[in-house]
Design a protein that fits this description.
Keywords: Methyltransferase, Transferase. Helix content is 29%, strand content 19%. The chain is of the alpha/beta class. The protein has one domain: Rossmann fold, CATH 3.40.50. An eight-stranded mixed beta sheet has the order 3-2-1-4-5-6-7-8, sandwiched between helices. The longest helix has 15 residues.
Amino acid sequence: MRSPRPVGTITRGTTNPNRLRRCDRWIAGPQAWRLRRASGPPIVVDLGYGASPITAVELHDRLRLVRPDVEVVGIEIDPARVAAGAPLEREGLRFRLGGFEVPLDGDARPTVVRAFNVLRQYAEDDVPGAWARVQQRLAPDGLLVDGTCDEIGRRATWVAVEASGPVSLTISLRLRGLERPSDVAERLPKSLIHRNVPGEPVHAYLQDLDRAWARSAPQSSWGARQRFLAAAAEIRERWPLLDGPARWRLGEITVAWDAVAPTGTT
């Protein structure tokens, strides 16, 4: 019997080493409990890893520090990209053909599916359906991470989606040389990038973060990190942030999804 056709379309596939380090650090940090709670070896999928398999290799290197028995599966819709990954397979790391249907052996279900710079190349209307397909495949306590970043990973954003729906938006920035936090707007996930306009919650959030960043300018004497800490502490009074100083120090800030979701979707 022929295997079902993978669900999705081939993306441009652009990637670079260390590009997804910010998201990997978040999965291995605040989300590590999902891996530790798994009763057997947790499965983590790098969905749509692109022209180079390096991001899947790096993900495996980082997550096995949390769970040495973690299994990372790189899934790509392009057979040539799957073939390129095959020589790098090792214990706990493999590659296979597929798409949003997330094909795994038997009844296996992934603990985490990371889909970075994938849905960015789709239409906004395609996002709910793609999320739903992956959500159906998740293990209990499983998570889909739908994100976007720049070419070298200095600016990144991602939506955390559980089986019940999206739960948070994370922004992660290289603070050195940052002019304003809203510079990340062009790297918002597909579900939000067209909503960064007046009247939409995500626009209000970014504008408020910019204003807090500007008011925290005196903290620059102690460095950009202290300035960002002060800005985040200020907006926590008005926005439901889900993290604290330990993450803010990394240039990372996470807000509840309901506060920034597109109008008409909450």
